[in-house]
Amino acid sequence: MAAVLMGVLAAGCGPRPVDDADVAPPAPAAIDAPAEDVPPATVPDAAATIASATGSTPPAAPVPTGPAPAPGAIAYGGFGPAAYGGSVESLRMAWGKDLDGAPSDPLGCHHLTPSGGSGLAFMVENDAFVRTDVSRADVEAPGGGRVGMTTADIQQRYGPRVDVRRHEYVDTARVLRIADPAGGNGVLVFETDADGTVAAWRTGIAPQVDYAEGCS
Length: 216
What we know:
- By secondary structure, the protein is α+β, with helices and mostly antiparallel strands.
- Helices cover 15% and strands 24% of the residues.
- It has four helices and eleven strands; from the N terminus they run ααβββαββββαββββ.
- It has helices at residues 2-8, 46-54, 88-95, 151-158, and strands at 74-75, 78-79, 82-83, 99-100, 110-114, 120-125, 128-134, 163-166, 174-179, 186-192, 198-205.
- β1 (74-75) and β2 form a beta hairpin.
- Mean pLDDT is 78; it is low at 1-28 and 33-62.
């Protein structure tokens, strides 16, 4: 936990007893690298999904090179100390840098994304932080899954807890849903492409974690 405290301000999945040797000054942000000029974030969207389903080829997505979360920051229950269902301000404090995005309706669904882009998106609905989306291969999901793995890789890694569902738009794609093994409300979801390769993953709480089109 001390390592996560130094990298993400605090753990997002629940406390454990600590002693003085464990305590270190809090880090200013739950990210590993400073922001730089990078391509826009490559968060999956409905247009790309539908294009895949209809056989059209969307433009190649840029490889995200912006700031990445510290290892372990994205958990079943939230992002660092920012718990799903909690305030947007707690999310902003956990990220520690600027987040772009504003809702047309204060209680509507929208995404906040790191300035400059980093393959991440934080979903907000009803003025609460409810989900984190990841589309970059260098960020590890809880339990070790990543973008680029196959359906078989995920099933081998997570075992019988994987609930395999058909994708809403792509017949041969799959949605791999995994409930929090600790019994919390959080859920981990992997989405594969038509070839069975993980294209993106997310954690969050229902019903928002199951929105196939994000906030679209």
